[in-house]
Write a structure and sequence with these properties.
This protein has 230 residues and is an alpha/beta fold. Helix content is 38%, strand content 18%. The protein has helices at residues 14-24, 45-51, 65-74, 95-104, 126-143, 159-162, 174-184, 208-224, and strands at 4-10, 31-38, 55-58, 80-83, 109-113, 120-121, 155-158, 189-193, 195-196. The two termini are 32 Å apart.
């Protein structure tokens, strides 16, 4: 049976992480390790991760959501990694679907989508929905990306393929950089429809206008350097 590493970026997730880790215990046959990458939480997040025997990485110098994912996958001991969020909005019930899809399709990456047939989100606000759809349209028109959800960092990847990508962004710009460079680098990728659930707890980390602006700047920079090495 194929086993994966679960990577969970966290920042003050004490109210949701314990619930999520209890849910993950149902998938022990599919999980080889759980790696919590923490952005210096000031609550009991680390204590909860330790009690659940997670491998823990503390972001010391370079903080950011993208950096947490990169650090987590770089420390993975498995062939594949799946990204979840500490707030629990990415539903672990899709773990088996993601594993089956990447193995059966022999893909390098499989992205979970919130938009399209049989997909949706219970955590979107009107503003985030509009922003996500606009950025996805830009990704399709200017970069040729063939997925319906460019900003949803719920994915499974072959670690060796992920590590070949030269990432430039450590913040939420990583969310668009990943699918753009996967497509540009001619990696084999596909997607599955998923339903994003309401976050279990915790504050929204995305600042719609500020992070939306940063994402747009990231896409402009990526387009300007589209012909450079990944």
């Amino acid at each position: 049976m194929t086993k994966v590493s679960i990577i969970i970026p966290t920042l003050n997730e004490e109210d949701s992480l314990n619930v999520l880790l209890n849910e993950l215990s149902k998938f022990n046959d599919n999980i080889s390790e759980i790696i919590v990458v923490d952005g210096k939480s000031t609550d009991k997040t680390i204590e909860i991760a330790k009690k659940n025997n997670c491998k823990i990485i503390i972001q010391q110098f370079r903080l950011g959501y993208g950096d947490a994912i990169i650090k987590g996958i770089n420390k993975s001991n498995s062939i594949y990694s799946i990204i979840l969020d500490g707030d629990g909005s990415k539903n672990p019930t899709y773990i088996k679907n993601l594993i089956e899809k990447i193995v059966n399709s022999n893909s390098d990456f499989v992205f979970a989508e919130r938009y399209g047939q049989e997909a949706g989100s219970l955590d979107d606000t009107l503003l985030t929905y509009i922003g996500n759809r606009i950025f996805t349209l830009i990704g399709k028109l200017f970069f040729g990306i063939k997925i319906n959800d460019i900003l949803h960092t719920f994915f499974i990847c072959k670690n060796e393929k992920f590590k070949k990508i030269n990432f430039k962004f450590n913040d939420f710009g990583f969310c668009v950089e990943l699918p753009i460079k996967v497509h540009k680098g001619k990696f084999k990728y596909t997607s599955i429809p998923t339903l994003e659930r309401k976050r279990i707890a915790g504050e929204i980390k995305v600042r719609s206008f500020v992070d939306g602006y940063k994402i747009m700047i990231s896409m402009i920079k990526l387009f300007a350097n589209i012909n450079k090495n990944i």
